Description:
Layout: H1 5-18, H2 27-38, H3 47-79, H4 85-133, H5 141-147, E1 148-157, E2 162-169
Antiparallel strand pairs: 1-2
Helix pairs in contact: 2-4, 3-4
Amino acid sequence: MAIWPTRTTEIILSPTQKQPMLSSRFSPCMCRAAASAKSKTGCGTTKKALGHQRKELDKAEARLGEINLLFRKLYEDNASGQLSNEQFVFLTSGYEDEKRELIKRAAELKKEIDTADERSADVKRFVALVRLYTEIGELTYENVHEFIDRIGVYELDKNTSTRKIEIFYSFVG
């Protein structure tokens, strides 16, 4: 059983035309809804938490720079004979452990920040597309492929003679 072109257009366009949340007046609400749909936790990373992560990353990178400078000074002191080899090993061992932990934490923070930035960019692109396509009158090849990721059409339910159709919009999971 084929789905008629006019019915397909109606099925695809109805969520964008009937939902008040999709109008340009409600774009902050739209951003929150799209962000929570995209987020695995359901609430997304807040700007405050993201700012905290960026500050922590800056501190970790600054401390790594300090440790590298300390290593150079200790090495120079050891090379010039001001420090014995035992003293050098003792003083640098603590810094090596701290440096490993800082490198590990900095990598984790970079990954989290990059993920949050990517999610934010996806939401912004989706909201821009929604604004562009809120007033669509007809489906074209371009707007379907830009706005819709995929459409799932399920088997016909013989009891009700209906078929389940799921539309997965781009950028929001």
